[in-house]
Design goal:
Shape: globular
Radius of gyration: 23 Å
CATH architecture: Orthogonal Bundle
Strand content: under 5%
Number of domains: 1
Distance between the termini: 74 Å
Largest sheet: 2 strands, antiparallel
Number of helices: 15
């Protein structure tokens, strides 16, 4: 079947469900905590400029940047950025795909998923066009691919910096300063997506309440996502002081060649999301047991609701602190790997060498 016809099959009019564009993972405070935890994990020999107060603050601030893009109503921007925040892993299975075998190349995966979805249309609910203006509902999300792409950008930045610093007599101070600022920007923004990967509701179709078969009677409350992202963090008063003690010194991610030929960084990110998805049911179990501090909402016969306040338990608080620290630990590992794995920028080196003054003619 031609690709154009295949893609038409996966863009179907249809139903309900929450639009992925409504997703958030950690509010700004949570994302800041992840980036700050990652900075705390870096070893002493990591380039020191990232720890300078102004740069450390910018890295923390930029953790919220990708969510500001999502506040823009331009559908072309939304289509380009909304789906980088999550991966609904169950949808891969519904499309007949194994997450451990999908392509590490974003657009090759797009083809794989489109073909799988078209072959298993009965596994997917109809999509309501009114809730799909950015055309994100046809896709499961691309967070692991986005993270690996940012990793490549960061590695490129470090290659550039290393080359400039190896030839200081041929480099300009403003060039070094500019690439450092590029590195700070990339570190800060990519932290958002790695932080997303530590929030269990960003690795599942159950992102705004449990959907489908529900034998355990888990909450179908739409607001559970917002509560985990920010309400709980605010109620618990979670700060860097509670998260950073859970951090250990960052270790690089293994880049050893894999038998299946997939990019090892991508494989590590997919493993990261799979591990996060395994925490979805435990998180819902905590909510069911009243341990996350959110109100218990009961529908009354007259159509109103009754809210019963519930206290936040240490178990619920610890779950969230652990996930924030886990995101920071992974982010620090990616930052460290990018710095250590950055190869020399041979093209830049060749251009810098052209700046050498011509040798004086022999007398």
């Amino acid at each position: 079947m031609k690709l154009r016809s295949l893609l038409r099959l996966v863009v179907l009019p249809c139903v309900a469900g929450v639009a992925p564009s409504a997703l958030r993972a950690w509010d700004y405070a949570g994302h800041r905590l992840v980036n700050q935890a990652a900075l705390a994990s870096l070893p002493a020999d990591y380039p020191s400029f990232v720890r300078e107060p102004a740069n450390a603050e910018r890295i923390a601030f930029l953790a919220g940047e990708p969510d500001s893009w999502r506040n823009n109503t331009d559908p072309t921007l939304a289509n380009g950025v909304q789906m980088d925040h999550y991966l609904d892993l169950e949808e891969l299975e519904e499309a007949g795909l194994d997450p451990l075998q999908v392509s590490d190349l974003r657009y090759q995966f797009v083809l794989q998923f489109a073909a799988g979805r078209a072959a298993h249309l009965d596994h997917f609910p109809a999509i309501d066009p009114a809730k799909n203006k950015d055309h994100s509902r046809e896709w499961p999300g691309f967070a692991p691919w986005a993270i690996v792409e940012y990793y490549g950008k960061l590695k490129s930045g470090f290659s550039y910096l290393k080359t400039l610093e190896e030839l200081p007599e041929l480099s300009k101070p403003e060039e070094i300063e500019n690439i450092k600022m590029n590195i700070v920007y990339t570190m800060g923004v990519m932290g958002h997506f790695v932080g997303d990967g530590a929030q269990p509701l960003h690795a599942t179709i159950h992102h705004h309440g449990w959907v489908g078969a529900n034998p355990n009677g888990y909450s179908t409350w739409y607001g559970i996502h917002a509560w985990i992202d920010g309400g709980l963090i605010a109620k618990a008063g979670i700060t860097p002081a509670q998260v950073t003690p859970r951090i250990t010194s960052a270790q690089p991610i293994s880049l050893a060649t894999r038998p299946d030929g997939r990019d090892p960084m991508f494989a590590a990110m997919m493993d990261y999301f799979i591990a996060t998805q395994k925490l979805v049911a435990p998180l819902y179990a905590l909510e069911k047991a009243g341990k996350l501090g959110n109100d218990k909402i009961t529908a009354l016969p007259d159509g109103t609701t009754h809210n019963e306040p519930r206290p936040l338990t240490e178990e619920g608080k610890a779950f969230i602190e652990t996930q924030l620290a886990r995101g920071g630990q992974m982010l620090g590992a990616i930052w460290l790997t990018a710095w250590r794995a950055a190869p020399p920028d041979t093209y830049l080196r060749s251009q810098l060498l052209k700046r050498q003054p011509a040798a004086a003619p022999a007398k």
